Amino acid sequence: MMDLLPDWIGILWPLFLAPLNVSVALYCTAHIVREKRDVRAAIGWTGLVWLVPLIGGMLYYCFGINRIQRRAVTLLEQKSVSSRSVAALAEMDRRIQQDFVEAYPRFVGLAQVARCLTGSVAAPGSRVATLIDGDQAYPAMLRAIAGAERSVSLLSYIFDSDRVGDMFLDELLQAQQRGVEVRVLIDDVGSRYSRPNMIRRLRSAGVPVASFLPTRIPWMVMYANLRNHRKILVVDGKTGFTGGTNIREGHWLALEPKAPVQCLHFRLDGPIVAHLQRMFAIDWKFAAGEALEGERWFPPLQRAGPVWAQGIPDGPDEDFEKLTDLIMGALSVATRTVWVVTPYFLPDTALIRALNTAAMRGVDVRILLPERNNIPVVGWAAAAQYRDLVDKGCRIFLSPPPFDHTKLFVVDGIWSLIGSTNWDPRSLRLNFEFNVECYDAELGGYLHELAESKAAAAREVTRRELNRLPWLIQVRNGVARLASPYL
Hints:
single chain; Endonuclease, Chain A; 3 domains; 17 strands; globular
């Protein structure tokens, strides 16, 4: 009887698995066509679940389903703080606004785009200071924490256990010991880039800390989606920091790290700080279940500078593709210059066409990317798009090492977008991001000049170079581009 068992199994298992596979594929297909907004993603996942029996369905279950349902939490938090952070315009602000509209009428439409996307408008009276690399950003952040009297809110995608991480840990502990309310939120994937894990270290030290979306499959963390890629620090509800800089020693170039990384971060003062704190409060409520309320977290804010600014959240929940829509709106109003500085450049076809259209209208479109990407396949995929852009008049510059992690988007030297977002599908569709749109000619002009100074040290990609690219390199780049929706 035992000898016959394998034969029976060999005959019956296909009869069992075939209908099971069809059932799984049908169920997944129904879910895909109902939930997926992007046609290419829907086609790709549908093909996978049908062509890779059962495994395709398992992969879709693990990686294809957006399980983030935060709408009720978000609306609740917005209602609880928005009334304290939005004030009527003073007469002086109305005059400033009118002068700006008369000088730059095309930006009225862009402001309307942002209003439709966020339900709010840019508020006057903020100050935005640019912090170059961790050499400027970290000392300013550490000083702010050291001077905290009431509260510290810290959100970072990566918080490493290294020389810089230890400095932040010490300051957070000292703040807590002084009676300051401290809250730290770290993305679960980002916490795994170093050992020992900073979440465990903070927890063992008694600092309130939460992990954003703990991953189900630890060995796949490097490829997990739905990550919180935001970088926010708010001290006493009055001083804020945001940008593209994680907490890791590679950003502090003076420390001579093994893997140096350039980046930009920003200190913000004035009404815009309430937008940063509100974003942190929403994410903290989602991850830790605690509501942050009262003047300890949301004090009255005074005007601090000339910048009109507002926060732009983006993520795979109710904030889906807000940033993509805003970028498209900004490209449509550009008349003179566009600067895109990003470490990862894998825009979809619509964004590439928008860049090309702006260039064909006569706008000087310049894109600054790292010459040597820290993720080689991403660099190859980006290179596969160069010809499409250069042929239409866009200019691409490749910056030399150290790796440039800067995220910056400046239009006409007037409007700027700063924050955590890269120009790739992971940032624009799969991760939670936070950016700030700024209307100010002085700030925009400075950031425009900063991008130009970076480009001066870079080399420009030419048509001749692209035409002489070896055939095998072209094939390699093209194959890498096929994977761009998943990189």
